[in-house]
Records
---
Amino acid sequence: MTSRPHALVLAPFRGGGLARLEARCEVTLDPWIDHTPIKLHDTDELAARIEQLGATILVCEADEVAGPVLEQPLAVVAATRGDPTNVDIPTATARGIPVLHAPGRNADAVAELTVALLLAAARRVTAADRDVRAGEIYKDGSLPYQRFRGWELAGRTAAIVGYGAIGRALAWRLAGLGMVVLTYDPYADDATHADLDAMLAEADVVSLHAPVTEDTRGMFDERRFARLRGGAIFLNAARADLHDHDALVAALADGRLGAAGLDHFTNEYLAPDDPLCGFDNVVLTPHIGGATYDTEANHSAMIADDILALLDGGTPRHCANPEVLT
């Protein structure tokens, strides 16, 4: 028998954070993402597993934490996400269970992918790659130089919508490419613009990094696309609900947009016959913005440090329901 607390970790966990957690706790590590197909527990299964292990610490990323799970004698629940949407926070709060989370864990990863989407869209990298693979370098008697000429990004203006951790991580990267960077976020006092429409009128590139709320859902509609400069590039590495799909297709079809790069789709799936798949100036990736080992190391460190702070009677840095700490 041991007096050390038992932590059931169902999220990918690695690096120094894992080592620190293992030094203080008995750890059962079984990341959902290491199973093929992926393994997500329903609430009854998860409750039974917690009970069988005698776990008092639960760390997860995608499993639903609600109902019978929160009836277990848990001392802490940690969601390795920026926003712990998989946890029933009101019930956890009512039961006095702190809910930890990891804001900004994937900021650099998503910012890097956004830059990749921008460069690929601006220089039509994926279309050029397809021509090489298909033996069509001199397609229809033309030179690649003729088909793939584009504008350089240096000196162009980028507009970032949403100036949180990801927006800030993107801003300095775009500035490093020589771009003029504008920002809009009604909750950021240091954003360059308080008027979104005014900012869009100056934009050669617009990149979305806002959360989905009632105010932001569908915010990029036909009117907003029309505000952009002709030939502008549209990027969305946040959520598909932020833009109107049909308005985006129309803006690409009539040439108002020069290109687009998307990392999100409705329900994270895009049918092969979707109109977006027919544009060779659109770059599509399947929700991989945060898919780096560094993201996992980041959230592991943040969560482990906050769990240890609680075990030592201290205050965690990232708690979604801090009222339970009193």
---
Amino acid sequence: MRDGAAHLAEAAASLEAQTEGDFEVVAVDDGSTDRTSAILADWAARDARVRVLRQEPSGIVVALERARAAARGRYLARMDADDVSEARRFAVQRGLLEEDPTLGACGARIRYFPRRHLRDGARRYEQWINGASSPEEVARELFVECPLAHPAFFLRAEAVSRVGGYRERGWPEDYDLILRLWRGGWRLANAPEVLLRWREGSERLSRNHGAYAPEAFLACKVHHLRKTLLAGGRGAVVWGSGPVGKAFARALLAAGTPVEAFVDVDPRKIGQEIHGAPVLDTAAGLCRQGVVHLAAVGQPGGRRTLRGVLTGGGLTEGTDFVAVA
């Protein structure tokens, strides 16, 4: 945390109220200049489970990795200094990972607060992230956006260590970690109940840092797709020639992945070329083999429709096609 005094006491109280009491708190003060240090000192004085680490301002990845190096538990639970964990959070999430050894991480359903600050985008994201709980549901959404909320991460320490921990790559560090866990063979899930209240406001890092800009998310997705489904020079067919599809195609081409075609239902576009690739109709698109089909639409309803079309055409999600946004 950095300068988290305004809400730190509320966050701390939510951890002290956990029904699962077997945990330690590693609090990293990343160069605060407000009362954060004093509040942390008071907390550590009254609760032996709390350890405070202080450093010069170094950023979230350095702070997370320092906390991970100091942590002694089998599991790592993430939380920001301005959010609130529900009392059963640790118990429920620990239960999920202990019941299923194939899970490398889980999140939880979230609720933004204060509600008066919510914008339409946050409401849509809340609804979307709360709609995927099982490992199968989470995997389907993996390249749409990060399907686990970072402040609600509950991670298997061994799994995080195997994939190299958090890294600074110029794109979202949480999304990058989740994708590397998936690439490493670990499954991911969300607890099917609200376990974190996520504070919304203009001061959030994701609102004002370049690593969380749309182009940074896109670069992260393309990088990990090229390491997995698009490995070995495999080409892509982009379903949707709107803004989402065109942006994805540009990023793929810039990274060296061939875009063999676009597929669209608009008869005015069919037969044209976009970025040198022909625009096909649905039937012709389904005939393209040996490529990865990318369902590149921005709206959930459009993704549902495309999934039905691609599955009905004999393609398997996660192997032959994947939804992206």
---
Amino acid sequence: AGTCAILVGITSFLYAVAFIVLQSVLLSGLFLMLSGLFTSAALVAVYQRLRETEADFALFALLLGLTGALGSAIHGGYDLANAINPPSSSIPYDLPNPVDPRGLLTFGVMGLALFIVALLIRDGGQFPGGLGYLGYVSAILLVLLYLGRLVVLNPSSALILVPTLLNGFLINPVFYLWLGMSLLRSGST
């Protein structure tokens, strides 16, 4: 988490350089998005320390901070999506969703979260080891899907279609079914 806080400092500075000096929408969008994601990890670590002081207020600060950090990531992701593929009114799926640009949250952030979950499953020993490996595969497919939607746009492209089919019809459902059965066996609902 300390590393994430340092990365926030670095990406925030790079964002300022890209936005003000270079005036690059592509780089400023990228650094703003990364800064928001790194900020969320740093805020969780800060919450872990501050919750002993005042748990409710620390949680409130965490929720506000996470909302702001994800807003920053969304803002940067939207700018990045438009810089990579400038919108054209002739293609209906060309304009990114302003709330979830090209699946930044749905695929990119969820893939990152699932990768961390898989890592913890593998390291913790509380779940079957194979579940962690399946989580890695799903996480990678989600991130590939986000990158495909960011760069390619065409839903019939193999870069989008293959991860969608593999993860949507096989990997992700099996992962969550296995996770649910493991939780039920351990007495968690």
